[in-house]
Here is the input.
Amino acid sequence: MTGTRLAGEIRVALAQIATCPGQLASNLSRHLEMAQRAREAGAQLVVFPELSLTGYLLAHGVHELAFELGDARLAPLLEASRDLALLVGVPLRRQGGGIVNAALLLEDGAVRAVHEKLYLPTYGMFDEGRYFVPGRSLAPLRSALGTFGVLLCEDAWHLSSAVLLARQQVDAFLLVAGGPTELDAGDQPAGLRRWHAIVTAIAATTVTPVLFANRCGWEEGVLFAGGSWAVDARGARLVDPAPALEESLLLVDLSLPAVRYTRSLHPIPQSERLELWRAALEGEHG
Amino acid sequence: MGELPAVHIPLLATSLQAFLAEELRASGLSGYVVGLSGGVDSAVAAALAARAVGAHRVTSLALPAPSSSAESLEHARLVAETFALPLEVVDLSEPVRALTATLDIGQDRVRLGNLAARLRMVALFDRARRSGALVLGTSNKSEILLGYSTLFGDSAASVNPLGDVWKTHIFPLARHLGVPEVVVEKPPTADLWPGQTDAGELGFEYRDADPILYRHHELGMGRHQLVAAGFPQQLVDAVLRAYRHSRFKWRPTVVARVSASCVNVDRILPRNPEA
Here is the structure.
């Protein structure tokens, strides 16, 4: 830890890495290297992208590679988590069958919490519904550092996910993504620009900081957009975005008391008219 | 009438370099082997590979056949020199002549052209095997969509950085990478017989076909919409005919699925797993 930190002041590292599908040892070394850099920089939490340990485009490879909670392959990361919390992505075998696309919070040498991806994109180039089962519930992840809302890639494209988590007073969103991209006339990948619009919109409308860790690089001929970033509870940048194509580690300092104060000034999520949701649901199903 | 939407050429180049660097890393092999035809596509692919992994890891081959123009070899040398690539000239004239006789091909230009294209594939994959390298593909998106290639010939490769890049964008990409202007400017040709050009065979220029292909393939516009948008009907019909008739080349071999574990159907798996 560098210097003295006030209660509720945390430093989070966003680890933008390029992973390779099926090359676990190589991917694990990227994690350990980034964790060490984050540790040296005084971070208390490192956020890795979606399916960071296995790679994203696994297809039926999820059956070869899926983890279990007591998996021995997690040991090096659990060890690393003794002084530094880690949010890592794996395909996770669920008791009773099925594999979920999961983000595991590793803290104090143990798996402290799990977020299961709720929305599995199955259109265009995406085929997640073929290989994964959807997560069952939406709940904040409680860490010793604070309460976080994990949005796992497509989860963030359904704005209701963020609204529902914000109403549970999460201190920040950890948006972990494996966002593919195409290139157009812009000097940044088109996917990166869309993600930044979403990051800003979620932060501004839920009055909650968004910490966005995206992967970069290529898998099986598919380019991922990088551009990891963080904005505060009003959507203002906390740090310059990471480049699109290169691995990088972003450090974000966050004051949770300041977040809570901002939200008391702008209680937008608390004003959500849930009776309108109810009426819409009853209209659809009634 | 619409143009093809622009693409940011420096970002495209940097991204494709990263692709080639990652494919080589993930494969664990030593480098790339590329056939230099003297044309712009192979020059661009070679330049990207040289930037991605270093020119010393990119072996270029010039593969003249009896029908090849002298200019093609000259331009292949110029490209290799420009990007400091080791160049090996493998004259395929004798094997082409021998197989032409053995297979009784006679004067059939298409069969002769296919033979030369497939013998180049043989030479490239053999060279790649010798040094533990990957064969670099050079087919662009326009060629692929129109089927303007020899199946298991010039379309065969280990990895292809250009297969999703329109021919229209290959030219500015080539200039960005420093491909010699004489190579960028000459009319595209497969060089399978004297005087052959892509436009002569296809019946249209890529610059005219690409905006139609883009609107049909990517935006879902049908024939009537394309004509209503101002594209000449004859051109639209010719482009869409090629697009429909060549689709079998997009996935060269269809495997008959008779189990619940058919490769690439029931089992789609990462190509480069750990040992």
In short: Chain B has twelve helices and four strands.
